[in-house]
Specification:
Elements: E1 5-7, H1 16-24, E2 30-31, E3 35-36, H2 37-41, H3 45-48, E4 60-65, H4 69-81, E5 86-91, H5 96-99, H6 111-124, E6 129-136, H7 144-153, E7 158-165, H8 176-185, E8 190-193, H9 199-209, E9 213-216, H10 226-234, H11 244-262, H12 264-278, H13 285-289, H14 298-316
Parallel strand pairs: 1-9, 2-4, 3-4, 4-5, 5-6, 6-7, 7-8, 8-9
Helix pairs in contact: 1-11, 4-6, 7-8, 9-10, 11-12, 11-14
The chain binds flavin mononucleotide.
């Protein structure tokens, strides 16, 4: 890993094209979105699509979720066989469909399951194993420290903590003091995660918590440059905003990666959503949004971008 900045697993977002973009912009490690252990162990073709990778993004962490230790162990073997450099276990997802299978955040309530899963996966693979947790089910059941200790005892190599409770979803603030507390109680590296929306916050998190690495999720959506900006801040430089030309070039690059992965027309439609992020906060972005339904292929994407970006350039003159 060339630095300690990690792209968080984000379902529906951290696909291969997205990971290649953030990697290029400085992320030290990228992570797939959560992949169903049942889907992998059951050889579901669609699930295997999540394992598509490219040498340019490595090292790659693949995150798996599930509730059955043997299935999780089998899935871990499969992802390592497919090229994962690191296997990450999801122990925090608050999504209903995940919780109702006893996976993700539901595991935090079951010490026995947590232990069985981490131990079974540990036995199954030789590559580094990490576990991503939340602070507990609710504030009445804080289990971050005991879970991190258990994870360490079961042989995992690092723990990532997003200090919100499962029932909190994404409300309130991430309580970084919990990251600090975890860091004080385990020897393995602790990755802090939560609410790093601008470069200076990554430095603040490291300083306030002593964490060994910082994982960034939503802060990278629409601003994949955040990794480069944090690296600049760490060197004492003022983080650079991307030039308009750079922003546009990145949009086109993202599109071409997507086209390769899913074909031009589907990629063009997907770009509509991505463009909302890439133009967020830019002047008159709502005006551009109005033209987005016209984007159906490469040509219509280029002409929509030409129109909007030349308007932005003219405004600057
Ligand atoms: C759209 C979305 C999808 C997510 N998908 C996953 C996932 O697949 N696995 C996971 O462990 N966490 C997932 N998360 C949680 C993030 O990895 C991260 O822990 C959380 O967003 C807090 O970090 P942030 O404040 O930097 O965004 C997701 C979050 C969002 C917003």
């Amino acid at each position: 890993m060339k630095n300690s900045l990690i792209m968080a697993p984000l379902a529906g977002i951290t696909n291969l094209p997205f990971r290649l973009m953030v990697k290029k912009l400085g992320a030290g490690l990228v992570t797939t979105e959560m992949v169903s252990a049942m889907g992998l162990a059951g050889s579901k073709k669609k699930t295997f699509n999540y394992l598509r990778s490219d040498p340019a993004e490595r090292p790659l962490a693949v995150q798996i979720f599930g509730s059955d230790p043997e299935t999780m162990a089998r899935a871990a073997e499969i992802v390592v066989g497919a090229g994962a450099d690191i296997v990450d276990i999801n122990m925090g997802c608050p999504a209903k469909k995940v919780l109702k299978t006893g996976s993700g955040g539901a595991l935090l309530r079951s010490p026995e399951k947590k232990k069985q899963i981490v131990s079974a996966v540990r036995r199954a693979i030789n590559v580094p194993l990490t576990v991503k947790i939340r602070a507990g089910w609710t504030a009445d059941e804080p289990v971050a420290v005991e879970t991190a200790r258990l994870i360490e005892d079961c042989g995992a190599d690092a723990v990532t903590i997003h200090p919100r409770f499962v029932k909190q979803g994404f409300t309130g603030n991430a309580d970084w003091s919990i990251i600090e507390e975890v860091k004080q109680h385990v020897m393995i590296p602790v990755i802090g995660n939560g609410d790093v929306f601008k470069p200076s916050l990554a430095l603040d998190m490291k300083e306030q918590t002593g964490c060994d690495g910082v994982m960034i999720g939503r802060g990278a959506i629409g601003n994949p440059w955040i990794f480069r900006q944090i690296l600049e801040s760490e060197k004492g430089l003022t983080p650079r905003e991307p030039e308009l030309s750079e922003r546009r070039a990145l949009i086109m690059e993202h599109f071409s990666y997507l086209s390769l992965a899913i074909g031009e027309n589907r990629a063009a439609k997907m770009m509509r959503g991505l463009l909302l992020w890439y133009t967020k906060g830019l002047p008159h972005s709502s005006r551009f949004r109005g033209t987005m339904t016209s984007i159906k292929n490469l040509d219509t994407l280029v002409s929509a971008l030409d129109q909007y970006f030349s308007f932005l350039e003219d405004r600057r003159l």
